[in-house]
Amino acid sequence: MKIYIKKFILLFIISFLLISCNKSNMEVQEITKSNDYIKLAKWITGIYSNSTNEIHLTMHPIWQNKNDGFWIYMEQSFTKNNKPIIQHIYQLIELKDGLYEMAVYEIPLKSRFIGCWKKEHPLETLNPDLLIQKTDCTIIIKRKCQLIFEGNTIENDCKDSQNISEMIITKKSIKILIQEPKKVDPHKYLVFKKGTIDE
Question: Is residue 153 helix, strand or coil?
């Protein structure tokens, strides 16, 4: 009987230690997120409009319980009719040496999710496994100076005319370049300032 009691106590101690280690590792993982990564995630999200207020850009955090990056739903639309021009999902990941990767995903049956950022838990019905990654359109971001992050696709390989190929991020604005395949038009730079949308 004493042997069983000792075995039970030993198993209890081992279980306790394993739980403590896992908890400690989770806390360390949270701590290792750099201040710049947290700042970038905060700066990039928000509701934006261009200078003429004709186009709105929404970058809304989603799936905040996931631990594989900071997930963002992006919707760019005309102000007049709220008709989306672009709908994407971004996954912001911290790399080494002050670099950040923003993976781009297509949304299956995306028309179902128009305006979903207005909901309390947007895209909660969408299974992330169904997303289609646009691997050639991944954006690599770095901090240019204290007030600016800048990013671009790797060697401009993205062939999607609806994808952002370059972006400049500040605390209150986002400047983006929509690049068509084999064509760069400087007039396609769009500057969005952070604000609100009148619903």
Answer: strand
* Domain total of the chain: 2
DSSP assignment string, 4-50: HHHHHHHHHHHHHHHHHHHHHHHHHHHHTS-HHHHHHHHHH-EEEEE
Domain carrying residue 3: 1-32
Question: Which H helix or E strand runs over 93?
Answer: strand 84-94
Same domain assignment for residues 2 and 100: no
For residues 12 and 39, membership in a common domain is answered with no
Check if the beta carbon of residue 167 is closer than 8 Å to that of residue 188.
no
**Residue 155 φ/ψ, nearest 5 degrees:** 55, 30
pLDDT in tens, 128-148: 999 999 888 899 999 999 899
In this structure, are 101 and 181 located in the same domain? yes
pLDDT in tens, 10-44: 444 445 444 444 443 333 344 468 999 999 999 99
